[in-house]
Amino acid sequence: MGTVSNVLNRPDQVSEQTRARVQAAIEILGYVRSESARQLRAGRSRMLGLLVTDTGNPFFAALARGTEEAAVRAGLGVMVCNSAESPSAEQAYLSLFAEQRMRGVLLAPVDSHGAPWHVLSRQNIPCVVVDRAVGEDEVCSVAADDVLGGLLAGRHLLKAGHRRIAYVRGPEQLRQVRDRRDGLLRAVREAGMSADTVVDVPVHRHDVRSGRDAGHRLIGLSPRPSAVFCANDLLALGIMQTVFDAGVRVPDDLAVIGYDDIEFAEACLIPLTSVRHPAAEIGRLAAELLLKELDPAPEGHRHESIVLQPELVVRRSTVPRA
Amino acid sequence: MGTVSNVLNRPDQVSEQTRARVQAAIEILGYVRSESARQLRAGRSRMLGLLVTDTGNPFFAALARGTEEAAVRAGLGVMVCNSAESPSAEQAYLSLFAEQRMRGVLLAPVDSHGAPWHVLSRQNIPCVVVDRAVGEDEVCSVAADDVLGGLLAGRHLLKAGHRRIAYVRGPEQLRQVRDRRDGLLRAVREAGMSADTVVDVPVHRHDVRSGRDAGHRLIGLSPRPSAVFCANDLLALGIMQTVFDAGVRVPDDLAVIGYDDIEFAEACLIPLTSVRHPAAEIGRLAAELLLKELDPAPEGHRHESIVLQPELVVRRSTVPRA
DNA sequence: CGCCGTTGATGAATCGTTTCATAAATAAGA
DNA sequence: TCTTATTTATGAAACGATTCATCAACGGCG
After folding, report:
1. How far, in Å, is the CA of A319 from the C1' of nucleotide D10?
2. Do A263 and A119 share a domain, yes or no?
């Protein structure tokens, strides 16, 4: 019935009397309107999809919070999904998003090859890439300058006098892994030192367990680096734990610097120096970019790439006590 | 067209030839079926709703993973939402779930009063309460035995000779906060000691920041307790950091025991003794209970309450080095 | 008294999928 | 060849909210 719809969506265009009558009926019958019917009629849902590579990582949890905040402000819901770094899971979730006719999608792609968002374009679902820089040709994106982050970390360590620095990192396919190293190497060049100042320590995943592996390998290295730069805080936590256990003092024997500045970096026993990667802000800005792309002029839209500046947060893991 | 539907849902009931023809058309047109139309027809969605009180807490992240796993196995999606411990947000999300005609809902209620799931019952949406024990009258539930958890923690500390134990905890409305204390007090009675062995230290929230507050207050206490039992690991992390900073040695000067056994308890510099609260398993079992309630006999269903046993995980934060 | 303008209520059509009843085509048996 | 049985294809109805065109009611004014 059309009147009911008016009562719910345009209460001012309906007379006081009928409005009351309809409201009463709604109460009595326990009526709850069907979102799927609304969606079907509208042709699109009232949700944003957010697909990240690891929901367990506090970094993405923070990003999701930022997104959600912005979305709720715009009256939209968010569905957060986990591709678990699997390209096939990523594709499956994007298809799901397409079937749900999501209003828009925020995507942290698993790898930097291909354009996984093509499934979405066919349905005219706009997509914003988060936490990865991509060209402005196809989609908007919000990322942080990882080269700068690496540079900041490198300068900090070099200024403190370190001359042998380990770089602990996950799979090289991740652009971030490469960019952060590039930044570190640039700092090394700036300081007029040779590239073999940096010791590469690859691990499989960006998690604490891999950090512990790396820790054991670090202890065995000779000469042992005096500092380690980790591509992610979880790695740094694992490393600190292992080396602390082996009696290596942080920061005196080994300075440790992480990346992302997750909550637990600050909460750590020896608070971790880290490069602050503004997770919540990335999430928020990406959602806002998406909303802008949705809202008024569907045509006159130019894709944007926002790049945020990371920030060095110095804590005790790199600063010996006075 | 009915045939298309058959090709997609019952491909064996359609001839080889037409199937191929339809598939080809689907390819060419880039057809993606509309989930909202399916839902409308079916009268219910193919999703489970999961509403927790803090998506940032790794405990709930783990719980969500368990739920998701079980749901995906059953061909259902999961939408995770965050009530942020606000009863009004909780009610809003439950209404949202009702409008979406969720297949079922997993709920970690904000407080133990009332029955927030009533909005769902009216739509015949089954609800399973997670991580809180409730009677079996209205809904199923999966929780852990928090009294036992407190008991285990208490016995462990008392056996180690502690005679003055702080209990750091968030709002008392949470049943868990009460239960864990009850367990602790039972251990104290068992040991034939008086109830004022336990020093109550209330804080506002179950997070690291509140833990730091508690840490400062602990240091100021006199006589200072020799051990502290925290209602949650995040509190314990905050406490350890603060007291470590102040030169109090853990575990020698102060033994610390947490609750939940989140990933970061083990990853901590001084690994944290904790009561393992089986998050992923709670999530998984709750989802399975929900699926069972959904599946075959809608009527002959009796609500169940599963109570899991927590487990003490002893690490260095309570065991002085030999 | 009748005409017109305004406001508010009504009903039909629509979105895309599924289901079910029916129709057509094919195969088998008499 | 004709009937019956079986497989496969077709068409219409339904789900529930929204929209839009139409219609009724009412007050003002000539």
Report:
1. 78
2. no
In this prediction, residues B151-155 reach a mean pLDDT of 98
**pLDDT, tens digit, 9 for 90 and up, residues A277-286:** 999 999 999 9
The amino acid sitting at A102 is M
Q: Sign of the C-alpha dihedral, residues A166, A168, A173, A178? A: negative
In A175-234, the residues whose Cβ lies within 8 Å of chain B are: 208, 211, 234
Tokens 């609500």 identify what position?
A: B303
Residues 62-121 of A with CB under 8 A from B: 62, 64-65, 68, 77, 79-82, 95-96, 98-101, 119
Any domain includes B39: no
Buried b (16+ CB within 10 A) or exposed e, A47-64: bbbbbbbbbbbbbbbbbb
- Taking only the tens place, the pLDDT of each residue in A150-189 is 999 999 999 999 999 999 999 998 889 999 999 999 999 9
**Contact call for B32 and A99, based on CB within 8 A:** yes
The verdict on B271 and B176 lying in the same domain is: yes
Question: Does A34 contact B61 at a Cβ distance shorter than 8 Å?
Answer: no
Q: What is the mean pLDDT of residues B281-301?
A: 86
Residue of A nearest to B58 (CA): A56
pLDDT at A297 over 80: no
Tens of pLDDT along A201-237? 999 999 999 999 999 999 999 899 999 999 999 999 9
Q: How many CB pairs under 8 A join A and B?
A: 113
Q: Which domain holds residue A255?
A: 146-276+312-318
Task: Give me the CATH number covering residue A169.
Answer: 3.40.50.2300
Can you give the pLDDT at residue B9?
87
* Better-scored residue on pLDDT, A46 or A15: A46
Residues A92 and A122 in one domain: yes
Question: Does residue B49 sit within a domain?
Answer: yes
How many domains does one find in chain A?
3
Residue with tokens 């440790």, as numbered in its chain: A256
- Is A180 within 8 Å of A170 (Cβ atoms)? no
Residue B291 lies in a domain: yes
- Do B49 and B123 share a domain, yes or no? yes
Asked whether the beta carbons of B291 and B127 are under 8 A apart, the reply is no
* Residue B31, pLDDT above cutoff 60: yes
Q: Which residues contact B139 (CB under 8 A, 6 or more apart)?
A: B117, B126, B127, B128, B129, B303
Same domain, A150 and A266: yes
* Cross-strand pairs, B104: B48
